[in-house]
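Hi C.,

You asked whether I'd gotten around to modeling the 425-residue construct. I have! Everything is below, sequence then structure, no commentary in between.
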Amino acid sequence: MFKRYLWVAILLGLHALKGLSQFNPDSIYQTSIHTILIHPVNKPLAIPVISLNEPTPLEISFDDFKANYQDYYYAVELRNADWTAVEMSSFDYLQGFNQNKINTFSVSSISSQAYYHYQFIFPNTQLRPTQSGNYILKVFKNGNMNEIVFTRRFYVTENQVAIAATVQEPFDGQISKTHQKIQVVLDVKKIPFFQTDQISTAVIQNYRYNDAVSIAAPTFIRGSLLEYNSEDKFIFPAGKEARWLDLQNLRLRSDRIADINSKEKTTIISVKPDLSRASTAYYTFNDLNGGYIISNTESLQSENQNDYAQVNFTYIPKDKIPFMGQKLYLSGALTNNILNKDAEMQFDPVLGYYKKSLLLKQGYYSYNYILRDNEGPNLMNDFTETEGNHWETENNYSILIYYKPPGARHEHIIGFGAVNSRQNW
């Protein structure tokens, strides 16, 4: 009985500690925009983090289906840890002019879907950040900040703390084989005077920013070491290795593809129906943890020579009965890791399955199915019925350390680290 109450407390606590507000930093406001990528140069699966100390720039790219070239500009904006606006002038956290034109573009070739491919690097000689923290990239038209096309989050860090992290089995026997616990130890000796409530630690599992867990109080303090090792804080459902889909060749019917219709202007691809994996035996394989890589087996220039396809996903629930009181979502970078209408699967009562169509660029994709309650104060994202949870699952965890000293007007990010669950094996 005690363990059951403890686990309920864990679930409630995790949502009480969510570090993100209702504002969504990753939004698209123009329907012609597709395949937005933001990542460190040559690291397409890394989260968008740059360092003030040793800046490896971010590469930003996107496709626009509009028939003509557009004048696109970008700007960046510092935000608080909860993504609310800071009360600061951009001159206080940027060096350079904060409205710059995107000059690098190419026109699609040999693809049935016409598009313009835009890209740029940040920071650059025109603009760079001078303060660490949460940032939003804004892309807009015609030099008019009111004509925003899309926004994307990124993080700027400074290396003031050393981070050590491990992935462990939770002590609670009810979840020890289905969940993973993150233990974090910080060495803050470079910050001589601080209160523990001025430092908070956030952990992100596999790019799912909206499921990030943030806590302030460490479990133990030993000199300059802050240890986060509680049994009810950094606990994550382990899930399973992500499902995969190979779209690198739109003429080749790979293992996961049921049908290819190339007769239409846009190729239509039907993915083999997905079923619950909750009761299937666990086995490991290399996956992309919900990410994707744009690539093409028939061309060397994937940026502007990859084509697009309409990809139809289906999920067949048990006995073809819809989930009661819950919505089913297609989760991964292919839906921006956001559980909204664009990711929600629709149930067809005649056919007895859920379906969703996405317009995807050629590449290699990974994804999962997530259930979420329709109502209630704690809208937990749940793999239990669709994927199952196994402690052995390989997962990536990103760790951000926030610090707001007295008198500061925003939270600085004084450390960034990453740990993979396989590092402990």
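If it helps when you're writing up: The radius of gyration is 22 Å.

Thanks,
B.
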